[in-house]
Design goal:
By secondary structure, the chain is mainly beta. It contains one helix and 15 strands; from the N terminus they run E-E-E-E-E-E-E-E-E-H-E-E-E-E-E-E. The chain has one helix at 105-115, and strands at residues 3-9, 16-27, 30-38, 44-53, 58-65, 68-74, 78-83, 90-95, 99-102, 124-132, 137-153, 160-169, 175-181, 184-188, 191-196. A hairpin with a 4-residue loop joins strand 10 (124-132) and strand 11 (137-153). It starts with a strand and ends in an 8-residue tail after the last strand.
Length: 204
């Protein structure tokens, strides 16, 4: 069970935003990721609890940020309930999308797991519902994911395969790289892996 923490920063000006302390695990029915998010002062600001099935679909999502909370799942596309800061009003939403995305590294692993693009096969298009801090307001977007390289690195236990993906925002054309090893993000815009207690899990 990989356990560690990521540092989070603004992808444009590199202003530190805090840390995300996580643990995750694969199993016969899919993958689960749980994390706590801290600001630069070490104060708790949010959490992520995401479970995927063995096909990479989100079967349970619970996302919090400050007083906002979203619960969602893959149902008729993706469906969610968003609760406001007072806790007295809840709004339901649904979109013809494949999965969720957001600021957490969990969503990068989840999207790669869902798409599983083949090396050199070009970009795979995906429609996602983005839930981003500070208010977790849903926004539908389209991305293209292409697997550019898959490189094994020798370790004391077993070779570690690092995958490099090119992710394209299909509305703006902006591109960025995402580096994954199993169910851990090695590096991505605004995300750096700072510690890892055990090696990443591999998907079957």
């Amino acid at each position: 069970m990989p356990r560690g923490h990521y540092s989070l920063h603004d992808p444009h000006d590199h202003t530190p935003l805090g840390e995300e302390h996580f643990h995750c695990a694969t199993g016969p029915s899919g993958w689960r990721y749980v994390s706590q998010i801290l600001d630069t002062a070490g104060e708790h600001t949010g959490s992520v609890d995401l479970t995927l099935d063995d096909l990479g679909r989100p079967i349970r999502l619970q996302l919090t940020c400050a007083a906002w909370q979203v619960r969602g799942a893959a149902l008729d596309g993706v469906t969610w309930v968003r609760t406001d800061p007072t806790g007295t009003h809840a709004t339901e939403g649904n979109a013809a999308a494949h999965a969720f995305t957001g600021a957490s590294p969990a969503f990068l692993v989840a999207t790669a797991r869902l798409l599983r693009p083949a090396l050199g096969a070009g970009a795979t298009r995906v429609r996602l519902v983005a839930l981003t801090p500070p208010v977790l307001a849903p926004r539908t977007l389209d991305q293209g994911w292409a697997l550019l390289s898959s490189t094994p690195h020798a370790t004391d236990i077993a070779p570690l395969v690092a995958d490099e993906y090119q992710v394209t925002d299909l509305e703006t054309g902006e591109q960025h790289a995402v580096h994954l090893a199993g169910d851990v993000v090695l590096a991505a815009p605004g995300i750096e892996l700072e510690s890892l207690d055990t090696p990443p899990s591999t998907f079957s």
